[in-house]
Amino acid sequence: MGNEAMTQAPGAYQQPLVESSRVQKMFGSIAHRYDFVNTVLSGGTHYLWRNALLRLVPDNPRAVALDVCTGTGDLLPLLKKKFGRVTGLDFCYPMLHHGSKKDSVRSFPLIQGDALSLPFADRSFDIITIAFGIRNLESLSAGLRELKRVLRPDGALLVLEFGQPRNALWRGLFNFYSATLMPLLGGLLSGNRSAYEYLPETSKDFPCRESFARECEASGLVVKRFRSLTGGIAYAYLVRHQA
Ligand SMILES: C[S@@+](CC[C@H](N)C(=O)[O-])C[C@H]1O[C@@H](n2cnc3c(N)ncnc32)[C@H](O)[C@@H]1O
After folding, report:
1. Which residue has the CA at smallest separation from atom 14 of ligand 1?
2. What global pTM score does this model have?
3. CATH number of the structural domain 4-171+206-241
């Protein structure tokens, strides 16, 4: 499958060694261009992917929702259309600051905090989303356990993350694009090429589909459904507490 993580035992996936402080600094350095570069590099598909993620669960105006690794907060207005109270959390102040200046985001509470040590009581949220954030965490298993801690037992965790296409030709094209053109274009548009080299570094071996499901199981969670997006470039997962 071209993805070594496919064969790993559950819980065995080790994130590439990237310190939290380096991740924080890196997002801080591209925050001012983040939305623009994202739209250019994905050809706008990231909007479709976010909508696909939220379609995994029904609307519930009484639900309390948290978007972890919210970045500039693009998921927040979409969450508000479906759920009641909505909060965003990220550890990178410049990302939150740029988000808070956007008309679509300014009304939402934004909290600066670490996904690995969430400043909330156990079982606080009905819905938790994390879009293109989970592969950045220093430890996937610690991140999943922390998300589980603050998720209500009947709640839903919605994860959107890059993966590997199953089709070899499409996978080759995507890997070529993300390893060569993306750093080049991302570097030109944001002024920080290494930030856009980080994407292929972290997504190449990140567990997807069944391997991601096994990582969830090792942390007491279960993937109820997942959708492959744009031929497997990204995946949307609906995750719940194990019964
Ligand atoms: C690729 S961006 C995704 C932002 C947003 N969710 C989106 O879909 O556009 C990843 C975000 O995760 C945040 N992040 C990474 N590790 C984190 C951690 N341990 N705690 C909180 N935020 C973190 C970064 O600061 C960055 O804003």
Report:
1. 69
2. 0.92
3. 3.40.50.150
